[in-house]
Amino acid sequence: MSLEVANVSASYGAVRALWDVSISVSQGQFVCLVGANGAGKSTLLKTIVGMIPPRSGTIRFNGRGISNLRTHSIIRMGIGFVPEGRRLFPTLSVEENLRMGAPRAINNLEDSLKKVYTLFPVLEEKRKQKAIALSGGEQQMVAIGRALMGSPRLLILDELSFGLAPIIFDRVLSTILQIKQAGVSVLMAEQNAERALEVSDYSYVMENGRVVKHGRSTDLIDDPLVKEAYLGMDE
User: Fold this and answer.
1) Mean pLDDT, rounded, for 121-150
2) Residue 130 has what DSSP assignment?
3) Does the residue 57 lie in any domain?
């Protein structure tokens, strides 16, 4: 098992946001969290990476408990995180943003950069441009590349389609599938439920901070309730 979240609850102050959520991601698996805006998907991801402390429950990564660790320690263990809205340093160049994702003690910085540029050739062409001058799709590539600089074993993505045209989203998504094929596990929260279910191996449907349904993504695509509630299709 790569990631195991068991009965996790979390709050924003006095407001409960997650209720006994359990999910898992196996090595090399692509798992999606789907659900409407406000369902708790982003809160769950932030709790996994230590940005929100869990009120109860356990989170384990490759057999080690990470529930009480700080975000930088969790990232060092082999988890890459791409936040919603990308959160780049707008006045820094593409390459400077990528370097910000590399561990301090990294010995193969140039190799890591080459791997990112191989995945996203346009970033090498624009490596000296400021992030603020890039298109939304290019900024998303930088955010993903930054997360890959630490050679993660699990890549967590929060709302990959945020601010992207459908055709650009599909291009970026195809690169995520390449990353998955290279052996990196993927956990993605995504409002575009149809595309998320099409490309992932397993999915969890969230409502009001709870997991209300889960299963193989191919099965959930054909589930009447999922079709009606999240895919805009009536039986």
Assistant:
1) 93
2) B
3) yes
CB neighbourhood size of 70 (10 A): 13
Residue 120 CA to residue 43 CA, distance in Å, equals: 29
The pTM for the full model equals: 0.91
Q: Nearest-CA neighbor of 27 among 137, 187, 144, 229?
A: 187
Separation of alpha carbons 221 and 34, rounded Å: 12
As a residue count, the chain comes to: 235
Averaged pLDDT, 87-97 = 92
Average pLDDT over residues 160-185: 91
Residue 185 lies in a domain: no
Full domain range(s) for residue 201: 1-78+191-235
Phi-psi region of 57 (alpha: psi -120 to 50; beta: other; left: phi over 0): left
Contacts of 96 (CB under 8 A, 6+ apart): 89
Residues 181-223 have pLDDT tens digits of 999 999 999 988 888 999 999 999 999 999 999 999 999 998 8
Provide mean pLDDT across the span 85-98.
91
Name the one residue in this structure whose structure tokens are 């000296």: 128
Structural domains of the chain, count: 1
The CATH number given to whatever domain includes residue 16 is 3.40.50.300
All residues at 6 or more sequence positions from 51 whose CB lies less than 8 Å from its CB, including other chains? 71
- What's the order of all strands across the beta sheet hosting 54-61? 15-25, 3-12, 54-61, 64-65
Q: Is residue 139 part of a domain?
A: no
Predicted local distance difference test score (pLDDT) of residue 89: 87
175 lies in a domain?
no
